[in-house]
Design a protein that fits this description.
It contains no helices and eleven strands. Strands 2, 4, 5, 6, 9, 10 and 11 form a seven-stranded mixed sheet that branches. It has a four-stranded antiparallel sheet with strand order 1-3-8-7, with no helix packed on it.
């Protein structure tokens, strides 16, 4: 088990920035790939960003590419999502996930992750 706890969401105006983070416990944190997904009201959970277990590779959804940056600090068992140039359509609950995607495409899929946090709400006002 890899308990994951998100924090750092909140309310921000369009064009602003937020930096939610996800803290994990357990010595195996550094061996997992980490991802962020989001789910808006009445929508399916969608891929946002992911980072490989040593941080050498990052992956982004088309809607956030160039605006969001994922990073990780294995010494602190923490993954971050720097969100810039926020838009109202970014409003969602953001979920952190950990897992071992077996090939590149699985980084983008919920099935690539075995552990999930409870989510943190991000609301962007226009």
């Amino acid at each position: 088990q890899v308990p994951l706890v998100e924090s750092g969401g909140g309310l921000e105006q369009a064009g602003g920035s937020l930096r939610p983070l996800c803290a994990a416990s357990g010595a195996t944190f550094s061996s997992f790939a980490l991802g962020w997904f989001r789910q808006g009201p009445g929508k399916e959970r969608e891929f946002v960003a992911a980072i490989s277990w040593i941080g050498g590779h990052t992956y982004y959804g088309d809607s956030v590419k160039g605006r969001f940056t994922i990073s990780r600090d294995n010494a602190k068992n923490t993954v971050y999502l720097q969100m810039n140039s926020l838009k109202p359509e970014d409003t969602s609950v953001y979920y952190c996930a950990a897992g071992s995607p077996s090939y590149t495409n699985s980084y983008y899929s919920r099935s690539g992750y075995a552990y999930w946090g409870q989510g943190t709400q991000v609301t962007v006002s226009s």
